[in-house]
Every structure is written in structure tokens, then in C-alpha cells.
Amino acid sequence: MRYLSAVFILLIFLILLYFVPIKIKIKAYKEEKNISLEITTDIFLVNFLTIKIQKENEKEQLDFKIFGIKMYKSEDAQKLNRLNKEKKFSTLDIRYEDFFKIIKLLKDMLKDAIVHKFYLNIKIGLEDAAWTAILSGFLWGIVYQALMPIYNNATFTAAPEVHITPSYGQNMLEGNLICIFKISCGNIIINGIKFVGSLKGR
Q: Which residues cross the membrane (predicted)?
């Protein structure tokens, strides 16, 4: 009877977990060779998970926290490269043909999602003014194609902000992304399993 009660409680917990709303904040920034990416996940206003990747001055750092407790901190990129060569460190291999799978994943995951903020600011430039204008227009097309599946499948509480600014006469690429949205835990789990399974079965 005791084990039956434990199984029942676990089942109730899993059912509740499926419908738990998760708030995800994504902040990304790139300037020259410096790159920063931070993803935080909140459950009921409590910070559950934080992942931060930072590359600065040819050094890479990865921080992994659960409930604010640091669980993992990587060493510099040289060790990661050495582990890659020794086949002790593997990364998820996303190929070009998986692009449409990723788009479909976004469509499925963002059903019933609520986007509180979407801000994208990109500054791009080449020394040649004509090529800068062409590249800016091409980038607008890419951003539009990537944003439309999100816009059509999610609910936005505020209009998304997208700024692409051409910088003439200099080679540069700077970007700043802030995305805050709320989604159910079950949606992430189910579609994440489907996506990983599709990659393994290719």
C-alpha cells in the first residue's frame, strides 16, 4: 500500500509537471570576437536553470547552475578541443538538412506559447557600400523567414522589435538578442524528444 501511494504521488507530480508554465529568458550578444549567451529558466518565479556561455579574448567559459547552485564550470577552449580530438567530448551535430526540422520544432514548441519580449538588433557592414546594402537586405529576408513561424504560432504581448542597421565603410558584425517567453514544460519535453529522435534516425 505504501508503494502504491508513492507511485500515485509520483504520477500526480508528473501530470502537474506537464502543465507547469516555464518562463525562459534568452540573452545573446556578439561584438567582434566576443560572444555571450545566457539562458535562464524560471518556474513559479523561482530561477530553476541558468546556462551561460561566454567567449572573450580567445577564452571560452560555460557555467551551469540549478536553483542558483553552480553545478558545472568548464575550463578553457583548449581542453575542450583536446577532449574532442580524443573522442571524449561530443556535441550535437546539426547539419544543413536539419534546418527544416528545427523550423518545425519551433512551430510545435511555440503552440500556445506567450512571448513577452522579442528584441533583435544587428549592426552589419562591409567596406563596400553596395555590398553592405545587399547584405543588409539579405539579412532582413533571413530574419523574416525565421521570425514568421514564431509570430504565427505564439501569442505576443508586445510587437517584436527587429533592427538591422547597415554600417558603411567598415567590416563589422554586432548583434544583441533578448527573448522572453512562457511555455509549458510538457511541450518542451515531448517536442524535444521528437527532435532528438529525428536526428538519431537520419
A: 6-24
* Rounded distance between C-alpha atoms, residue 186 and residue 152, angstroms: 21
Res 14: pLDDT = 62
Determine, yes or no, domain membership for 5: no
**106 located within any domain:** no
Q: Is residue 202 part of a domain?
A: no
The C-alpha angle with vertex 92 and arms to 122 and 173, in degrees rounded to 5, equals: 15
Q: Which amino acid is at 160?
A: P
Domain count, the chain: 1
- Rounded to whole angstroms, how far apart are CA atoms 102 and 88? 27
With beta carbons less than 8 A apart as the criterion, state whether 182 and 113 touch. yes
* pLDDT at residue 103, as a whole number: 62
Residue 154 cell numbers, joined: 505564439
Residue 200 CB partners (closer than 8 Å, separation 6+):
none
pLDDT attached to residue 15: 63
